[in-house]
Amino acid sequence: MRPKSPDWSRRLPDETPMRNRTAVPHVTLSLGKIGSLIDGLGEYSTQLGHHVAAAAPLWRERWGVRFHFHLPARWIGLFGDEVGYLPVRPWQSRLNLQPRRHAIWHALNQLGRIPPPPGTRHAVMTVHDLNPIYHDAPDAAARAIDQLRRRLSRFDEVITLTHYVESDIRRHLGWQGPVQVIANGVRDLSQAPRSPVAALQGRPYFLHLSRMARSKNPHLLLDLAALWPDHALVMAGPDGSDSRALEARARERGLDNVIFLRDIDDATKAWLYAGCEAFLFPSQTEGFGLPPLEAMCFSKPVFLSTLTSLPEIGGTAAAYWPELDAAAMDATLRAELPRLRTRAAEIRAHALAYRWADCAQACLALYARRLGIEAGAPP
Predict the structure, then answer these.
(1) How many CB atoms lie within 10 A of CB 225?
(2) Is 223 exposed, middle or buried (0-12, 13-18, 19+ CB in 10 A)?
(3) Disulfide: which of 23, 77, 159, 223 matches 126 by Cβ 3.0-4.6 Å?
(4) How far, in Å, CA of 218 to CA of 213, rounded?
């Protein structure tokens, strides 16, 4: 287990206030051209952003550090009034000119093509996954990896979410620089308001929540649903071509027990988690895997593939499908479901160990180290 990082948002070292120094350290967290705040990248950005923004007044008062968020103009103000905002501009993918020099520029995902501004002292990127190498065609995967390698050449430190992805970064990108593994947190929705789904009341159901892209293996769950006609299978996630194509496929097969729900809010999500028999997640590629942990917060049995980072996240609190075909998955589900129902407290405790506050504190500790705060050196 990693040692806990100092609580940089609350307990501050006895340092000379940086406001008395000539240079004002500016730290920017860049969301880039992020398109949604309700998927995994959006959850990471908003949760980390809110925690860092909460620490901003203390950092400004004690050290003079100014935090900023670089994001699309429609989300300016998202993190409150104690931080600054830098709008994303179309030309920044070529030359990211900013009105001030940055001590730290932290790109919160690897997808954006916006480089750190000229003169940035320390540039950090969070790499969430290297999924293209697992599901893209070889030529497309090679292009994606080459593009990421070129983007990373402008950064001097990487944050990633699991040791599995750290290994991928070393192996496939040839990255020799420092990598910090900082796990995501999970929001505990078990105490949140709940909004029922009328079509499911009084009916047993299994739950799957994802974008339903091919890499999530949602088609395997249709095969499994055919073997459980007395249970509904709820497929929940954002509206999109993948979800609509999968629904059409289910209808063609006459699977009336498969129910699709799109763009659900937290209240509906909480109700679905609370009432499901089990959460099913046979994904082929994951850099982390938030939905399984969300389900575990409700003490629910969770079934995962053995691929990529999922065993690292699920640990001994989940059950795993060693083979991804309907017959083998069905056998595992029937054998493991009764056992997992007896481990409710352990399952919930496993999920609650992943805290966004810990994620933010670890990132703040990285900023502190880069600014020289830990060692008492000037930034």
Answers:
(1) 24
(2) middle
(3) 159
(4) 7
Rg (CA), the chain: 22
Q: Hey, is 311 helix, strand or coil? A: helix
Torsion of CA 77, 83, 88, 93, to 10 degrees: -160
Residue type, 109: N
Asked if the domains at 18-185+355-371 and 198-352 fall in one CATH topology, the answer is yes
CATH number for the domain running over 198-352: 3.40.50.2000
Task: Please check the confidence at residue 18 and state whether its pLDDT lies above 70.
Answer: no
pLDDT in tens, 204-215: 999 999 989 999
pLDDT at 374: 64
* Phi-psi group of 348: left, alpha or beta (phi > 0 → left; psi -120 to 50 → alpha; rest → beta): alpha
Would you state the CATH architecture of domain 18-185+355-371?
3-Layer(aba) Sandwich (3.40)
* Interval 60-79 mean pLDDT: 96
CA distance 162 to 187: 18
Q: CA nearest 124: which of 76, 75, 176, 160?
A: 160
What is the separation of C-alpha 181 from the centre of its chain, rounded to a whole number of angstroms? Answer: 13
Q: Measure the N-to-C terminal CA separation of the chain; round to a whole number of Å.
A: 30
Chain position carrying tokens 């989300």:
75
Domain ranges of the chain: 18-185+355-371, 198-352
Say what percent of the chain tops pLDDT 70: 93
How far, in Å, CA of 284 to CA of 281, rounded?
A: 9
Token representation of residue 140: 């497309």
Instruction: Give Cα separations from 122 to 69, 104, 284, 372 (angstroms).
Output: 16, 5, 34, 12
Q: What is the pLDDT of residues 228-241, one digit of tens each?
A: 999 999 999 988 89
Pairing assessment for the beta strands 258-262 and 232-237 based on DSSP bridges: parallel
Q: What percent of the chain has pLDDT over 90?
A: 84
